Amino acid sequence: MTLQQRITDKLSALRACMAQEGLDGLVITDHTDQFYILGFHFAPGEAVFLVHDGRLVCFARELYVHPLKEKYPFIDAVGADKGAAARAIELAGRLGLKRVGFDAGKENYMTGSLFKAAGFVEADSFISRLRKVKDEHEAALLRDSCRIAYQTYLYIRPLLQTGVTEFEVAAEMEKFMRMKGASSTSFDTIVAFGENGANPHHVTSRRALKENDAVLMDFGCVYEGYCSDITRCWWHGNEEPAEYTKIWNLVDKARRTGVAAEAPGVAAQKVDAAARAVITDAGYGEYFTHRLGHGVGLEIHEEPCNDQTTRAVLKKGNVVTVEPGIYLPGKFGVRLEDTTLITDTGAEILTKE
Prior knowledge:
Elements: H1 3-20, E1 25-28, H2 31-38, E2 47-52, E3 55-60, H3 62-71, E4 76-79, H4 84-94, E5 100-103, H5 109-117, E6 121-123, H6 126-131, H7 136-156, H8 166-179, E7 184-185, E8 190-193, E9 213-219, E10 221-223, E11 226-227, E12 230-236, H9 242-261, H10 268-281, E13 293-295, E14 302-306, E15 319-322, E16 325-328, E17 332-335, E18 338-342, E19 347-349
Parallel strand pairs: 1-5, 3-4, 5-6
Antiparallel strand pairs: 1-2, 2-3, 7-10, 8-9, 9-12, 10-11, 13-14, 15-18, 16-17, 18-19
């Protein structure tokens, strides 16, 4: 499928959403939503899109206009170093658009006030809704992103030596991901040794690896705009405690149970419940302190989520994590996480070679 056809398909899906709310125009200011439509990186606040009648007009800083016209000759790119929102409002008026929407949930106060004053209406987060279901092109990019993350795990594990610090390990992992084609990390890399692993969102530190120590790594990268997320744990040394072995196997069983529960039409809440029951039934429920997983795409945390309270129902094309964990304060933590793609019949693990 050509780039133009992919964009046309996304605009068609967006128009269908707009039609449901009686909109003949839509302004888009969120830079992540803009990337979803075009696949072009704008800095936050440097472009405003006006979508109408299947066409896209992009008001952007002058420095973007030439590359936009080169890559996307089928859209209208207009230089607007200042007042891009006002230019979009002016064009909507000249086109005679009757009902123009904007995503109030993603709008800042000043621009939102401009749109309201122009008579634009608050609309649903159409693009967030569309972003939940990945097309084949997006799924392929997510596979590549997750493959880089998994290769990083395979690369770094045999390199760990007693005395290395969390900082040093994280730096080497991030360098490797860059060498493999990643543009950045999808979040701050978490490397946690020993008791630090008992904090699910530990901030990587100067803590050095001991001769017998627990290791937890939670990391991912951004490849062609799409994120990956993986967590792996193991024991460093020859004297692995029986308690660590027991908990690791329990968390792995919960992970496998969660992945097996995923399928189109399944309530995400039930996926969380299935994995959580493994840990709760073993007597460690109080030490599993977070949701089972979250959506992944252009952002590292998206909808839908495998959560205890969500009303979401999984659909083919959703990409979600399964990441059960048990955290014993002062000792260690174990979390095992895979990013999965919901398929016709179940779930495909993406975090693999």
